[in-house]
Design brief:
flat, single chain
Length: 334
Amino acid sequence: MDDHGQQSQDAHDDQALTPMRRLGRGLNALLGGEESTEGAASVGGATVESNHIHVELIDRNPFQPRKDFGEPEIIELATSIRRHGVLQPLLVRPAEGQYQLIAGERRLMAARQVGLETVPCRVLEVEDRLVCEVAIEENLKRKDLNVLEKAQAFRDYIDRFDSTVEELAQNLGLNRSTVSNYIRLLDLTEPVKRSIRKDEISNGHAKALLTLDADEQVALCKQIAKEGLSVRATEKAVRELQGRGESATEAQTDEAAAGVEGEEPNPDVLPMNPEGADDPHMTSHVQSIVDQLRDMLGTKVEIKMRGKDAGKIMIDFNTSEEFERIVGHLRSAA
């Protein structure tokens, strides 16, 4: 990508933010979708100012889901800025006597690397919830943001704003199942998560492993990395571990004989809960209740049946804040 192209891509990312389109034409113009003049403007009742701000007065977006930024892309963007300046203004908001970044973190990092003292910014008064949505939406389009960072961003949003999977999906313009499926990846064991971060296994592999217990996840994850199992072969290996299907080796051999690499499954679809697959009391109705509870609470939910009319519901939580959020949802639904 050439220098102009790198900054043009950043500009396109700002224009494409779904939360901005949701708020209408004015904020879309603010992000660069339309021409705007220097000075003050009104967007959604808020005053927007366009000016240059010292880079040391701009703090990071606290809702930024990205933990690491690739050095090569920052260097490439810095080269563009050194030649052409910052073509697309950063979006910021006032915060404790300084400014807080809303969109444009790579441009800010590159500008600092070049040695610029000030950068063009557009200043807007917006609430935390929208800033968080912008940060998520901006990074969803980045292929180098791993699925666990996306999943954690979704979980953090739900916990912080006492939201639901359905509300977040609607605000981001995503399918509810997409958000729910990402969040479920946080239930994987830590060794498997490390393999995802190292790109040793794909998102499709990870989704297949979700249905196994911790030890089985780790063992099959190692087999995937060692033998280069496809997603299709991994899914068959999972079924074999559950006593329902051929081995991963047989599956891989079948693919080779057919001359076709195993296809990646639909990223928005995860397998049904296999733990109840052999349980005659785990009906499609019970499974649908599991799915509804998971979507409503934004966390892992299991129903263990003991006979036809008895059982227990298990709801996962990892922090006291998440516990309080879940209890709040249950109370409001009562």
